[in-house]
Amino acid sequence: MNCSKNIAVIGAGYWGKNLVRNFHQLGVLKSICDQSSAIHQQMAKDYPNTSVTDDFNLVLRDPSIQAVVIAAPAVQHHALATQALHAGKHVFVEKPLALTYAEGESLVQLADIKKRILFVGHILQYHPAVVRLKELINKGTIGRLQYIYSRRLSLGKIRREENILWSFAPHDISIILSLAGEEPSFVDSVGSNFLHARIADVTMTNLKFPSGIGAHIFVSWLNPFKEQKLVIVGSNGMLVFDDTEPVEKKLVHYPHAINWQDGQPVPQKAGQIPIDLKDIWDEPLKAECKAFLSAIETGKKALTSGEEGLRVLKILGLSQQSIEAKEKTFVIPASPSVLPAQVGIQEGNSYSERFPGVFIHPTAIIDNNVTIG
Questions:
Q1: Prediction pTM value
Q2: Which tens digit of pLDDT belongs to each residue from 218-260?
Q3: CA–CA gap between residue 177 and residue 215 (Å, rounded)
Q4: What is the spatial distance between Cα 373 and Cα 369, in angstroms, rounded to a whole number?
Q5: DSSP one-letter code for 47
Q6: What is the pLDDT of residues 63-95, one digit of tens each?
Q7: Whole-angstrom distance, CA of residue 237 vs CA of residue 79
Q8: Are 248 and 226 in contact (CB under 8 A)?
Q9: Which superfamily is assigned to 7-123+285-305 in CATH?
C-alpha cells in the first residue's frame, strides 16, 4: 500500500479503539483524536509512536494525513465527515453514514465534487462468512432466494443519540439489500420504547421486494443474551450465518427441500453441512480496513461506498417514518363512554367509586392506597 502512516482515527472509545488497533497493525496509523482525557491518556500509553490529540482541526490541517476514520457518535458523523471532505481527506464513516437521508446525500455529493473516497462501516459486507455465503447463493446452491431474516440482539450497548433501529439494523439492511439486488417495494416497521419515551429499544422491520423476496429484521438491546443470526431461505435449501459461533460453525448449509405429494407440500429435511471458511478467514474489521485502504490506492468506489450507505439510509428513514406514524395513530381508548362506568368490581368495591371519571378495564386489578392522576 502507498498509504504509509497517513490515517487518523477520530473517536477511540467503544468501537473506535478496535479501528485504532487494526490500522496500527496495518502500519498506516498516524494520529488518534478523542475528546476524552481518559481515552487520550490510554491511547498515548498504548501507541507511544502515534500522535494523540483532542483537536480535530489540527488533524485536518496536517497535509501528511491522507484519510480520516470517523468513529464518533452518530449524531456527529455528518458534520465531521463534511469538514474532512472539505479539507481534502478521504473519509471512512462508521455506520450509520448520517442520521437523515438529506445529510447522507450531501456527503455523497461532496465526496464526488472533491473526488475523494467516502466509505461506510458496514462491516458484515467484509465478513468471510458473508463473502462465502454470497458465493454459494450466486452458484445456485440454495436455488432462488425466497425469504431472509435477521436477529441482532444483546443486552446493551444502549445508546441515547440514536435508537436501536439506527444503531443495530444498518448492518442487516446492508446485507439484505445486497442479497436481494434491488430496493424494497414495501417497508413497514414497529418499535417499542421501554427505557425512554422517545427512543425505541426493540424494533421489527418487514421488507418486501418486487421480485417476491421477503425479509424481516429484528433488533433489540434488551435481550438476555447476544444473538447475531442471518437466515437465508431458498427454493432448494437454506443458509444460516451465526456470528456468535466459532469459525467452523459460523456458516451452515441446510439442504432441506419441499417436495409435493398428492398436491401437498412435504418438507424433506437433510443434515446440516458446515461451510469451511479457513481458506479465506481474516478478522472482519481488518478486512474492512484493508478495503478502505485499497479504495484510496485505486480510486475505485468500495463495496460499502457512500452510495451504498445512502441506500441503507433510505430504508432506515422509511422504517423510522413507519414507527412514528404508528405512534401518532395508535391511541388507547380512555373515555368512560367506551364501556359502562361501573367496571372493575373486586370484593364488592367499585373502582368507579374509588376513581370517578377514570376508565378502568374490567380485567385490571388495582392495589389499595393507589392514586391515579
A1: 0.83
A2: 999 999 999 999 999 999 999 999 999 999 999 999 998 777 7
A3: 10
A4: 13
A5: -
A6: 999 999 999 999 999 999 999 999 999 999 999
A7: 45
A8: no
A9: NAD(P)-binding Rossmann-like Domain (3.40.50.720)
CA 174-178-184 angle, 5° bins: 80
| Least confident window among 59-63, 237-241, 342-346 | 342-346
- Cell matching residue 205: 422491520
DSSP 194: S
| CATH number assigned to the domain covering 125-282+316-326 | 3.30.360.10
Name the nearest CA neighbour of 188 among 329, 328, 319, 327: 319
239-246 long-range contacts, CB within 8 A, separation 24+: 239/133, 239/136, 239/137, 239/141, 239/142, 241/129, 241/130, 241/133, 243/127, 243/129
Q: Which helix (H) or strand (E) holds 168?
A: helix 164-180
Report d(CA 81, CA 177) in Å as an integer. Answer: 24
